Amino acid sequence: MEAMSSIATLLHSFFLLSLLFLFANASPKTHYHDFVVQSTPVKRLCNTHSTITVNGQFPGPTLEVNNGDTLVVKVVNRARYNVTIHWHGIRQMRTAWADGPEFITQCPIRPGESYTYRFTIQGQEGTLWWHAHSSWLRATVYGALIIHPKQGDSYPFQKPKRETPLLLGEWWNANPIDVIREATRTGGAPNVSDAYTINGQPGDLYNCSSKETVIVPVDSGETNLLRVVNSALNQQLFFTIANHKMTVVGADASYVKPFTTNTLMLGPGQTTDVLINADQTPSHYYIAARAYASAQNAPFDNTTTTAILEYKSAPCPAKGTSIKPVLPSLPAFNDTATATRFSTSFRSPRKVEVPTDIDESLFFTVGLGLNRCPSGANTNTCQAPNRTRFTASMNNVSFVLPSNFSLLQAHHQGIPGVFTTDFPAAPPVKFDYTGNVSRSLWQPTRGTKVYRLKYGSNVQVVLQGTSIFTAENHPIHLHGYDFYIIAEGFGNFNPKTDTSKFNLVDPPLRNTVSLPVSGWAVIRFVADNPGVWLMHCHLDVHITWGLAMAFVVDNGVGELESLEHAPADLPVC
């Protein structure tokens, strides 16, 4: 009898331990990381550069977490430039202090200093990424941030055999900081990049690059998940794989209704998760990306980066020979029809609750401009067309970053004189936005203007591209929020006729919208995250010129609707 009782006790204990083990595995975890920002010798295109990296890696470390987990990342700056890190697409509920854009939510981390970012992932699954948000450092300071489902949950699609992040980037045969400093001095456009990269490598079609070309291994018959990120600084990119179709299952860490395509188009900041079936003859196939360049007559990097999809069962080449991978056909650089077909294919997997009773109906023009050369200025400092300097704006306001305090500090502590709350809800002058715009409208005003939102308000923003100087596709990113893209189109938005195109049933949820060239897009969100949130074009040359604004979202009622207190180690300006 005693033996039976002992066995029962043991079984009971084993059962309890198993439950505890399962619970411990299923409960959210806290992940601790150290990021050391430092100068590292990196050789690309036959030249070695002193490149700013994280932990000596280019691209930087991939962070992997589960939905519900917390990240604690201590960033130590051992480089010669100021730096901040932005966790692109993370909602940062009540933790705006950890968002990262320089002079918006924090002062920069000075050389020799450090700052610890703490935040929890809430209700997001899929692919995001992190990058520097200070000058042009994100050219090389970036990495993937992968959010798996909660422990015990699964993907809403077939479980892939393996997963591969593919980060698309841009490489200069120069120091990117010098490139933008030179452009700021001259007032002209910065030099375009010398190569595109996949996971930091240009690939076979560039000099001195073949040996390091990225290999993506597959087995015949398996289904794999590719997590594609456009981490390029200034260029939208087409992406394709020779002879293989892709099934899109996610974007910007939200699941989408699956659809099949031969080509992706990603603006900088955007991510796309795709399934590929290894169903072709075992061989080597190029994965390739090249520019989607929509601005007429503007210079761009017209090269192609490649990686290789390699079937493990592919026949080995004869001694002394090599197998030339199959090259895919990529769209022409100005193929707006393909870009549009792709961007308008996105839907949420099911019916969603789109905000309908709109409290704030906003209309923002988005585009470039030209500033007249200041009187007495050297001609060398006015090298944009007709002796001018390039600029950019939203609603005719070219955004100026503060320098003594971050906007979030000024808002939270009530510091006067840092910003004004008079960012216009509509353009100060109505005009034919995508037509032949009068030269009198080409020079915007400068200012640090924000738009204030009450907590919980339902917001609609019509983003309207302009043809000032040149029309082009703009990837518009909103910090601290995901938003529904309920419609997009070409020409000028017409509230009488275009509202009939609104998808209020299953629009996609994104954090970055590709604003069509000479066109418009309409987004909606609920202002449920207090703080100061930057909205900007993710072409870094355009944010440098002022194509940005910020929302100040007030606290709601009680602690759970209010911004957390600032961390003790928040950098000072």
From TrEMBL:
Catalytic activity reported: 4 hydroquinone + O2 = 4 benzosemiquinone + 2 H2O
One biological process term in Gene Ontology: lignin catabolic process
This enzyme's EC code(s): 1.10.3.2
Entry note: cofactor: Binds 4 Cu cations per monomer.
Keywords: Apoplast, Copper, Glycoprotein, Lignin degradation, Metal-binding, Oxidoreductase, Repeat, Secreted, Signal
Key word Metal-binding present: yes
Family matches, as Gene3D superfamilies: Cupredoxins - blue copper proteins (2.60.40.420)
Cited function: Lignin degradation and detoxification of lignin-derived products.
Descriptive protein name: Laccase
